Amino acid sequence: MVARELPDTYLEGFAEILAEVGRTGRRLTRDEVDGRRALGEQAASSGHGLRSLVISHLAATRVGWPVTTAPDRVLAAVEQAVDAFAEGYERAQRLAVRKEEAARREFIDDLLHGRSDPGRIVQRAERFGLRLAHAHAVGVAEGVEPYDDTHPVTRTVEAALFARFGDRRLLLTTKDDRIICVVPGDQDEVVKYFAKQAYAATGGQAAIGRPHSGAGGVVRSYEEALNALDLAKRVGLDEPVLFAADLLVYPVLARDREAMADLVRNALGPLREARGGAEPLLETLHAYFDAGCVSAQAARRLNLSVRALTYRLDRIHRLTGTDPANPQHRFTLQTAAVGARLLDWPAKEL
Questions:
Q1: Any idea where the PucR C-terminal helix-turn-helix domain is (predicted)?
Q2: Rounded average pLDDT over 16-31
Q3: Which of 177, 216, 253, 287 can bridge 301 by disulfide, Cβ–Cβ 3.0-4.6 Å?
Q4: Domain 254-343: which topology?
């Protein structure tokens, strides 16, 4: 029954081969093997299942079994024919997978860089489970090694996401050695879970861009996440998961570089006069502000006694004329300290 349901095209010449083998006991010729492979490729391209095709060959063997004194020769020929047919089928399948992977990679590159026509990207996005008419957010994770789509870490994160959320129209991929996750903007629990799993798997850091609408919105959210990771390296943010929405003050501060450089020079420049240079006192300011201006916590971060930390803060006050403990002075010093991180001062001259 199965053999009759499939086109006879894929069994073309098979009965004649069986009859010839039954008479002569020979093996298949090279042309016959190549012909079976070609038919296997055609069957794969037409979308037929390999299991049904193999059953069709076995049914045709039963129906067309020749009168012979060497049944083992016939069985060997059937094995050779089915093996060649399956080889062609699998070769076509591998080619189709490679083409699909190439199309997916091209789409991802276009999506994350905005290099293609937005209308065309929107049309292609449906094929990969995205509806770009809605807002999307992008999570990006990086670790101590490069990642691609076949890396075990990528597969681990992917398995965790789909086990918990199933198919929520999310896209998990890799780009420039990082793991990327694109999710609908109203599913922040998904992208947060991605960031948590990716951080745990990579031992690195993850960042989440804000949701934005349209194909261009994906690019914007992706760039925000990348900028957050870059900013974390520059200013020493060690949180495992960064949110671009929480870091908006940094791009604002860095927008006027000359004004920021002027503030750093004027507010922190006198620290250069300290014994040992500006770095130890600037490190003290960073720890003090990162600890919420709690002296005991800042001292622990620096492995100092509270008394030693207080001495350093007093030294900063005497050199700069600005008191870190004074709320009226604190904003200027903290902004200047952030600017120093952004501009890599005092390692670089301003």
A1: 281-336
A2: 89
A3: 287
A4: Arc Repressor Mutant, subunit A (1.10.10)
* Fold of the domain spanning 132-247: Alpha-Beta Plaits (3.30.70)
Which residue bears the tokens 């929405």? 245
* Rounded Cα distance, 133 and 263, in Å: 44
pLDDT in tens, 197-218: 999 999 899 999 999 988 788 8
Q: Read off the pLDDT of residues 313-325 as tens digits, 9 standing for 90 and up.
A: 999 999 999 888 8
* 92-101 own/partner pairs: CB under 8 Å, 24+ apart: 92/40, 92/41, 92/42, 92/44, 92/45, 93/44, 96/44, 96/45, 101/149
Instruction: Tell me the torsion sign for CA atoms 280, 290, 221, 208.
Output: positive
Residue whose entry in the numeric block shows the structure tokens 């006694």: 305
CA distance 170 to 129: 7
